[in-house]
Amino acid sequence: MARRLTKTSANFDPDRASGWRVVRKVGPYLWPPGSEFRWVRTRVVLALAVLFVAKLIAAGTPILYKWAVDSLAGEGDAAMLVVGAVGLTVAYGLARLMNVGFQQLRDVIFAKVGQRALRQLALETFTHIHRLSMRYHITRKTGGLSRIIERGVKGVEFLLRFLLFSIGPLMLELLMIAVILFFMFDVWYLVVVAGVIVLYTWFTFAVTEWRVKIRKEMNDQDTDANQKAIDSLLNFETVKYFGAEAREARRYDGAMEKYVDAALRTSYSLAFLNFGQSFLITGGLVIVMVMAAVGVQNGALTVGDFVMVNAYMIQITMPLNFLGTVYREIRQALIDMGDMFHLLEQPAEVQDKPGAKPIAVSGGAVTFRKVAFGYDPERPILKDLDLTVEAGQTVAIVGSSGSGKSTIGRLLFRFYDVTGGAILIDGQDIRDVTQDSLHDQIGVVPQDTVLFNDSIFYNIAYGRDHATREEVETAAKAARIHDFVMGLPEGYDTQVGERGLKLSGGEKQRVGIARTLLKDPPILILDEATSALDTETERDIQTELKAMGRGRTVITIAHRLSTIADADRIVVLESGEVVETGTHGALLTRDGRYAQLWQRQAAEEDEAA
Predict the structure, then answer these.
(1) Residues 6 or more apart in contact with residue 511 via CB below 8 angstroms
(2) 383: domain CATH number?
(3) DSSP string, 504-544
(4) Are residues 508 and 562 in the same domain?
(5) Is the same domain home to 169 and 292?
(6) For the chain, first and last CA: distance in Å?
(7) Smaller CB count within 10 Å for the chain: N or C?
């Protein structure tokens, strides 16, 4: 008994899996409006015209074959006998060559259209993914997302090319052959051929639909296996720490086992499809050939007619043999593209207001006014938070885990929108300005600086587009990493590896500081920027961070209280609310929550020492 297939949101959503819906979305890439895209429409029309000529030649080629055979047999029209079998054979060969030539010309003309559509859709998808909210990205599996994009983008060119140049042309060619059979023979030839085509098409589509469901499951298992592999490789060190290589191999092999099971059923169903198609085509061929043989014996048909009928049946067989494959691939492309279009339809949680203007930062004062927020409506993080950071001031935010410290930085950068209250910069609500301009005014040094798998120069220069070599080196000197870089064999061209793993924690952090210095923002967020470093490295980097904060508005989210003792003001958060605020000395004198945290950390450091 066949195993029941599990319905997945990626493959069985009836709205997303709607083929016509996807085709309608692809249409504008094939026939884009606007005068600047006239060349696209011209190429499509030319490709279709060349295709029509190719099909006319293909439909007429077997007639030349018939005339050549009749000429050899001494039958046929006098005109054909004058031309001769050799001339007709040469004409037959030229017709076949022209058919192939026009088909290749069609592909050449259309190739630029397909590649343009692929590039445009890939760019739209890539850009849209970067517009999606932080909430979407932290709940989405990166490996699965990359497969959806890869398969969807590749499906565009395939769908445009095969839908336009396979199914439609096949119908046109079959119609031409049907007309020729009707007028040159009798209606029974047409009935047999039409019956074979109908049965063949029904059988092919029915079995292919069954196979598509298996293929969907196979894709799901492929995505799952790929995700497990990527996840394991990204966490290579963790796997090693816990000696979990065998465990990871079992997880991966389990996913691959399910993939192999679906792949085998795909292979078995293909064998059934191929045999069924051959049975129908062969049966139709035999019936038509017997009818033609009887006609030749009765003198109603010539030997050339017998050969021509055979040629037309073979000519029908060749495209029909690909019908199942083409149909399956088109269905799969529609599903893959449906997943991608669903991704494109995901609304960005944080969007610019219509008519939003760039932010104008004069001093960089930051105000949180009655701010309320929660990642989950049932679990509020910040509750009516009031906090003001004056221009040029350094304010440290401390508190126990889960108090909402890092959330403040994410809200200021507008990764999320507040659910209550407002955040203002120099009196401007950040929801009223463009996100791009807001991001330009804020620099972030996170706890774990993640680098691109590229050179040190590229990672520092990422802070400002088109930065010069001199500007990059100046930022590196300010972050005290220039001498280290120059001591490397390849200098600034040194590759840092995946996520910067070839560098130490302190070196990565200095690259991150240099990158932010190069950006030169008026507002700076230090999100536990040194909590993951050893004490000596932390002291060195703290000096650089203090120098970096001069003349800027700085919000420091701190874990180690010793690093923020000289802040202009310290804010203590508990359960999303401000419970204390003041300078380091004033808060210690008050002997409140901050003093408790300070004494606890001091005791832990003494114990560790």
Answers:
(1) 449, 451, 456, 459, 460, 479, 481, 496, 500, 503
(2) 3.40.50.300
(3) -HHHHHHHHHHHHHHH--SEEEEESTTTTS-HHHHHHHHHH
(4) no
(5) yes
(6) 68
(7) N
Tokens for 305, please give them.
């007619």
- C-alpha 533, offset from chain centre: 35
Residue with tokens 């409140």: 592
Burial (CB count within 10 angstroms: exposed 0-12, middle 13-18, buried 19+), residue 477: middle
Tokens 């209550």: give the residue: 420
Q: What is the mean pLDDT of each run of 10 residues along the chain (609 residues)?
A: 36 46 70 78 87 86 82 66 72 88 87 81 77 64 64 71 70 81 82 86 84 80 83 81 84 87 86 87 86 86 85 78 70 73 75 89 91 84 89 88 84 89 92 91 84 90 89 88 90 84 83 88 84 66 77 86 85 88 89 86 70
Q: Determine contact, residues 312/175, Cβ cutoff 8 Å.
A: no
Phi-psi region of 427 (alpha: psi -120 to 50; beta: other; left: phi over 0): left
383: amino acid identity, one letter: K
Supply the DSSP symbol for 16. Answer: T
Single pTM value for the model:
0.62
Residue 86 belongs to some domain of the structure: no
DSSP-H helix ranges across 299-421: 303-345, 405-412
> Interhelix angle for 187-234 vs 303-345, to 10°?
30
Domain count, the chain: 3
Please give the structure tokens belonging to residue 582. 């003041």
CB 577 within 8 A of CB 564: no
What is the DSSP track for 183-244?
Answer: HHS-HHHHHHHHHHHHHHHHHHHHHHHHHHHHHHHHHHHHHHHHHHHHHHHHTHHHHHHTT-
Please indicate, yes or no, whether residues 417 and 318 belong to a single structural domain of this protein: no
Q: How many other CB atoms are found less than 10 A from the CB of residue 449?
A: 23
**CA distance to 19, 29, 339, per residue, from 335 (Å):** 8, 18, 6
Angle subtended at Cα 295 by Cα 289 and Cα 299, rounded to the nearest 5 degrees: 145
Shared domain for 152 and 241, answered yes or no, is: yes
